[in-house]
Every structure is written in structure tokens, then in C-alpha cells.
């Protein structure tokens, strides 16, 4: 069969059937909403209809339309043989023999070396989770919840016991947030169904949120971190401008929804305080109801039922509402600073079609390792390793980190690591710099 203008499928004759062959030029044309192809291990798949049924959501797979998605495929799917069964009906042909395995001039040797690193990690058993680690982690979360109730039961509802209870509940909620993240990434159990079940229990029953909402949003972030229109975490709905490109674009177009040159100051008022108690809470409930996700809604309601059953006898209905609001207000600060210190100070831009290693390293940085930093951030201080290998259990990040650093050094890929204080500081500095770029473009261009 020829390449270029083929529509896919098999050409059959008395000699048998031969799959079509395609050039990258042809494949890259199929990146439209109603026409999506992608490449995995030199095989071309038409995913136009499959995106609607993709368990990870239509956007995360759709973001790779017209591209090589081999490394993303391996990153997100721990049971590849099972998933490949779903790929068979979508297979339409192969890359032409004279076509490189990588599109858009990517460094073929760098890509291959990264894949060799992944094989090394698999051989080292770094994708095998420790049952003891995750059992103890869940136990310490449940123990914090028990201590919160016990404090009120034995010490009453005075100011000091109430403050202790708030501290215990906030810590429990933050740590449950990191633990649901592990199960959401399928990094604990070998079988996905067990990961999904525990994910719903932790994010639903222990936190009152939605597993499906989190998956569809967070997987996009991992697929295309810090890429506008593909990573929902950098969609700031005109509240903030990020990076170096967006501020100039807004400035040139005279877009001033807010005084962005002061965003590093009003960030403290509307960023950390409001994300979880206001924006996430409203968005999660709206998503579950509009999508008729009754299973996740039931899990979420079980959290609220348990919470109010536990604390109404101590504080009454409105006192319990106040308690929940305060806990989420404080947790929101914890969550925002930890999640943004790894990404906001890094490159934030439009799609540049980099290879997996380069795209993840451009958008992520690490925070120094210590027992406190590991616990405080849920091991997201190893953000680089987590983004490269999202299904790797977090307790193994430190083992693969030296090999990742060595690979980055070989290809001059920036591997950035900083202290916790500098990570927090750089969030504000990057917002200030982006605001200044906006103001300059707004006034002078």
C-alpha cells in the first residue's frame, strides 16, 4: 500500500491483506476534534470514536492526536497487555519504513535512552508497591480522625480542644489527599479495579470528593503539564496570567480582567484560601450532578453523613459547618503551596511537541528530600520522578532519582531541585514576573 493519502484499513487481494503505511505528515493532519489518529510503537491507531469511551477521559488521549504517544501509553497503563486488547480494533496501519520512530525532529537516542531507563526501573522492581507502607499510611490517617473525635469526647469543646481537633482534621485531610493520589495513579495494587475501589473510598468517603472528576482533570495535567488548553491546572479563567507567553498575549490584546501586575499580592487572598472550600467544592458537586455520576455522589455524601454525624453532637449543625469550612480553608493553603511550587515557577506555554522526558522536565522541579518534606508533600517533592513514572509507588522515587538525574545530565535537560522555602518563594516571584510582563505589554505594545 502507498503512504500519505491512505485512509487506513486493509488492502486485500489474492496475496492476502496488507496494512497501510503512513508518513508523519499524513498522521499530523488527523488532530481534529472529529478526526484523531495517534502512534504507539510505530503502529497507527484511529481513536476518533474510542476517545468517547476511553476510561481515562476523552481529553487526555485526544491531546496526543497526530503525535507519537508511546511514552504516554506506557506511563499511564501498568497492565499494557490488557489495554492492547482495546487497541486492536483501532489499528489502521504502520509508520512507513523510511519514517523515523519520532515525530517533529525529536532526539531519537534520547527517547530510546529514556525507554531503557524505564525498563531498568521495571527490572529493579520499582513499580512494585510495599503493602506495609500504604497500610501504615492509611492507618495514620484514620488514627488522626480518631484522635480528633477523642479530643472532643474527652476534653470537651473549649477553644484549645477545638483548635487541636482542627489541626488533626486538617492534617488527616491533607494526607488523605496525597493517598488518594496514589490510588488514582494505579500505583498501589497490580489490578486496576482494586486501585479504583480504594481511590473511591479515600477521595469519596474520607474527603467528600469525586474520583472521576479527579481522574479526568489530573491525567490531563500529567499528559501535557503546563501546556495551555491541554493542562486544566494552568487554566486560570483570567484570574492569573502565567509564564512568559500568556502575559504578553494578554497585554497586547489589552485584556485586563484583573490588575495582573498585582497578582502576586492578591494570590494570597484568592488562591490558597479559596481553591478547595469554594472552587473545587462547587466544581466537584456540579460535575457529579451534571454527568449523573451517582456512584461518586454516593461516596461523597457518605463523607458528609459521617462528618456531621460525628461532630453535630459537639458543635450543632452550624458549628459543624463552620468546623468543616475552617478545616478546608487551612487544607487549601497546604494543597496549593505544595502543588504549585513544582509547576508555577517552571515553563508554562503553548504546545511545543517535545518528547516525554523534555516535556515533563520543562514543567516540573523537585524539592529537597527529607523525612518532613516527604511526609508534608506526599512525596510530591519528587515531582520529576512522579511525572516521568506516574504509576511508580512513591516510596521508590528516591531510588530512581539518581538515574533520572544522570540521564538529564547526559542530554543537558534541566533537572531543577530546590529547598522547600525557595519552592514557596518562587511561586510568588514567578507570578510577579508574569504580572510585570503583562503590564509592560499592556502599556507599550
From TrEMBL:
Domain of life from the UniProt record: Eukaryota
Pathway where it operates: Lipid metabolism; polyunsaturated fatty acid biosynthesis
Protein name as annotated: Cytochrome b5 heme-binding domain-containing protein
Keywords from the UniProt entry: Fatty acid biosynthesis, Fatty acid metabolism, Lipid biosynthesis, Lipid metabolism, Membrane, Oxidoreductase, Transmembrane, Transmembrane helix
SUPFAM superfamilies: Cytochrome b5-like heme/steroid binding domain
Cellular localization per UniProt: Membrane
GO molecular function: oxidoreductase activity, acting on paired donors, with oxidation of a pair of donors resulting in the reduction of molecular oxygen to two molecules of water
InterPro entries for this protein: Cyt_B5-like_heme/steroid-bd, Cyt_B5-like_heme/steroid_sf, FA_desaturase_dom, Fatty_acid_desaturase
Family: Belongs to the fatty acid desaturase type 1 family.
Location, primary (coarse class): membrane
Membrane topology per record: Multi-pass membrane protein
Transmembrane segments: 125-143, 149-169, 266-285, 305-327
GO cellular component annotations of the record: membrane
Organism: Hymenochirus boettgeri
Residue intervals of the Cytochrome b5 heme-binding domain: 19-96
An individual GO BP term: fatty acid biosynthetic process
